[in-house]
Design goal:
The protein folds into three domains: about 30-260, Type I PLP-dependent aspartate aminotransferase-like (Major domain) (Aspartate Aminotransferase, domain 2); about 265-350, Aspartate Aminotransferase, domain 1 (Alpha-Beta Complex); about 375-435, Ornithine Decarboxylase, Chain A, domain 4, CATH 3.90.100.10. It is an alpha/beta fold. It has 14 helices and 16 strands. The structure holds pyridoxal-5'-phosphate.
Length: about 425
């Protein structure tokens, strides 16, 4: 086999899988008829614009249309996913060496940004929602308590929605931040579709990061950085630190085309997807949200007594969900999914018979003691040991089972017996952990 990866992807695509994962196009056509148009795959040549350049050009015009549509002062296209956006946004707001109030449930890109920028985190906890078996929203009250107790903190960073679709009240959190002179960054990696469904909450934040590729029909790695109170030159300055100096013009063109699509046919299709998700949720008590949660209306989080078995059974039937944990299977439903796809999903779910509430997942233990800063932990010498032998040692990696989707142990924190007992209790089966020497 001279092209093993290419061949295996072709073979999988030929099976016509139902893709309820990323990218949000789900294998269907991209807006504007883009496939891989090598005739558009340019570099900066004097006529094509410059993503990080200063002269007005077509890239800037396309970014302005996004900023205007989503209600922001500026927008930078990203070709390195929300990972690049989280690094760029935190550099823009927090600079180097400052203290940051960080959602404990942040993606690893935020933990890496802490280390690269030498930021000192003060973690914002999320309540445990036993009924759902997931972490709840970041509350404005917790943010207020934190900023009151720590007047040195001038940057707050939260994620909304979560992987499971849980939304935090961004305008309320933003109002608290403003009252304390702090800036708010929202990791909205999973929320790029929400403004096209009428959601306006993101506009209250200073900086928002979104992965176009997760929930919109856009190619993998395409993402957006949106800002209020900052001009494009500042976004470009920080975006170019981790962005390629040869960004893909096909990705940039796709970001332009997907906005246009979402302003018309895409939004109508997304509304239909939301209706189909709602109908499926209503069809089964185990799919309905309890606890009065504010949820992304397109995210389908299926409850199951054994989420891993349900995901495997779905895959056997050609249905590929985004993620599974012991009590859930998460499907990313987008405007690429219509009646035919939902009917296929419904039949597959009925065949498996594996939806329903499982045994409740216990709440995660309290955040461990931080011994090293994230930066010290990232660059420290390390060794891999069996997890069972790691009690008392300082962790060099992130141990973040789903659920809770919140790291039980982050780099630089001490691993205690109670953390290991929790990981055993929830059946988290990693065998090894990296510890600091
Ligand atoms: C909440 C969150 N933020 C950031 C990222 C990173 O996004 P990307 O894969 O676009 O780099 C992810 C990826 O899953 C995520 O879930």
């Amino acid at each position: 086999m001279s092209t093993p990866l290419y061949d295996s992807l072709r073979a999988l695509a030929a099976q016509n899988p139902l893709r309820l994962d990323m990218p949000g196009h789900h294998g269907g056509p991209l807006p504007g008829g883009l496939s891989w148009p090598s005739e558009l795959d340019f570099t900066e040549n004097g006529a094509t614009g410059d993503l990080f350049g200063g002269e007005p050009d077509a890239i800037q015009a396309a970014q302005r249309l996004w900023a205007r549509r989503l209600g922001f002062d500026s927008c930078l296209f990203l070709t390195g996913g929300s990972t690049q956006g989280v690094h760029t946004g935190l550099a823009l707001l927090a600079g180097q060496g400052s203290a940051v109030a960080l959602d404990r449930g942040s993606h690893r890109s935020a933990y890496h940004a802490l280390a690269l920028l030498d930021l000192i985190p003060h973690f914002l906890p999320r309540p445990w929602l036993a009924g759902e078996g997931v972490a709840g929203p970041v509350s404005p009250e917790v943010v207020e308590e934190t900023l009151k107790a720590r007047p040195d903190i001038k940057t707050v960073c939260i994620t909304s929605p979560t992987y499971y679709g849980v939304l935090s009240d961004i305008p309320a959190v933003a109002a608290v931040c403003r009252a304390f002179g702090a800036k708010l960054m929202v990791d909205g990696a999973h929320g790029a579709h929400l403004p096209f469904l009428g959601y306006t909450g993101y506009q209250a934040a200073d900086v928002v990061v979104m992965s176009a590729h997760k929930t919109l029909p856009a190619p993998g790695q395409t993402a957006l950085l949106l800002a209020n109170g900052f001009g494009l030159p500042e976004l470009q300055r920080w975006g170019s630190v981790s962005g390629s100096s040869s960004p893909s013009y096909v990705f940039l063109a796709a970001l332009d085309a997907v906005r246009h699509h979402m302003e018309g046919e895409g939004a109508a299709r997304y509304r239909e997807t939301v209706r189909l998700v709602d109908r499926l949720r209503q069809s089964h008590p185990a799919l309905r949200a309890r606890d009065g949660l504010a949820l992304d209306p397109a995210r389908l989080t299926l409850h199951s007594p054994d989420g891993f078995a349900l995901a495997a059974a779905l895959r056997e039937r050609g249905v590929y969900p985004e993620m599974a944990d012991r009590g859930h299977v998460v499907c990313i439903c987008t405007c690429a999914d219509g009646a035919a796809e939902f009917s296929r999903l419904t039949s597959a779910l009925a065949e498996t018979g594996l939806t329903g509430l499982g045994s409740p997942c216990p709440p995660p233990p309290e955040t461990p003691q931080a011994v090293l800063t994230p930066r010290q932990a990232l660059f420290a010498p390390r060794r891999r040991v069996p997890l069972a032998d790691s009690a008392g040692r300082v962790c060099a990696c992130q141990i973040a089972p789903y659920p809770p989707g919140v790291p039980v142990i982050a780099p630089g924190e001490r691993i205690e017996k109670k953390h290991l007992a929790y990981l055993t209790e929830i059946g988290y089966n990693i065998c090894c952990a990296d510890i600091i020497l």
